[in-house]
Amino acid sequence: MSDPAAPSASRLSQSRLGPVVEALCTASESLVTGPQPPHARREFPSRTVIYELVEDLRSILFPGFFGPSELTGETLRYHVGATLDRVLHGLGEQIKRGLCVPCTEGGAVCDRCDERAFELAQVFISRLPEVRRILATDVQAAYEGDPALRNQDEAIFCYPGLMAITSQRLAHELLKLGVPLIPRIITEHAHSLTGIDIHPGARVGEKFFIDHGTGVVIGETCIIGNNVRIYQGVTLGAKSFPLDEQGNPIKGIDRHPVVEDDVTIYSNATILGRVTLGRGSVIGGNVWLTSSVSPGATVTQDMARDIRGKGGRRPDASSKSTACRKDVP
After folding, report:
1. Which residue, 1, 18, 68, 92, is most buried by CB atoms nearer than 10 A?
2. Residue 237 lies in a domain
3. pLDDT digits over 8-26, tens only?
4. What 3-state class would DSSP assign to 314?
């Protein structure tokens, strides 16, 4: 028989877990931005809910392709209206949670954050027709830029580039409105699904086409013009960044490339720093580039090495080569 005076396994477990629980809770509290009042509810944005809202938005932007597939002219309007209403209220709640994370006013619910969140959700919804218009140009760019595509439907259904671009365009609108956390959650989810990492802060023009796409990285302060095409493994990144007196990175500076209209960047090219790729230029595969490129120029690996060796000379349009024009996946 067991000794009734002996401590139970449950009491032993609690006594051993208690210090661990306290240490983890204390460490977790230090991660929260801003002071938190005692016993305040911890309501962060829900990634699961945000993912569902993005899929709802995808079904609005491309009805019949995503969401319900048996839509008619009559049921289409019902689907779009009902889904928009659901997105409006669901997104408003998630925005409120994001706004309340650094809020210092206290209380379980901040009325000011609640009102502001619903206003932001309404403005975002009002911008969806323009997002839809631009996405139609991206679909057209995919069809024009890839001979393997039999029709535009295939691009909408199947192409990871279009999925990543759709998420980024939605996230970018939220970021412009000052919505915290949610834009990055959206683009990082698309990153995990497609292998394409586009920061929500990047400004992307019309008719943008990412072919294949795996490994593409586009930084926060990139500016991309119209009718730009890039292939897998391309990095539009930062060369370096200045530090403040305490050794911390200085935020908010322009540190990523500017890509002008009609530029093509082939696979695994790396372009770093606030350089400009001139209109109509072509960047060959596997090029490492930290210098600006003149409009109409074609840059190959050998030319990029020559540029670095001569102190960053800008190649001019007369230096065109057919070498990288053959490097088409």
Report:
1. 92
2. yes
3. 666 656 668 888 888 887 7
4. coil
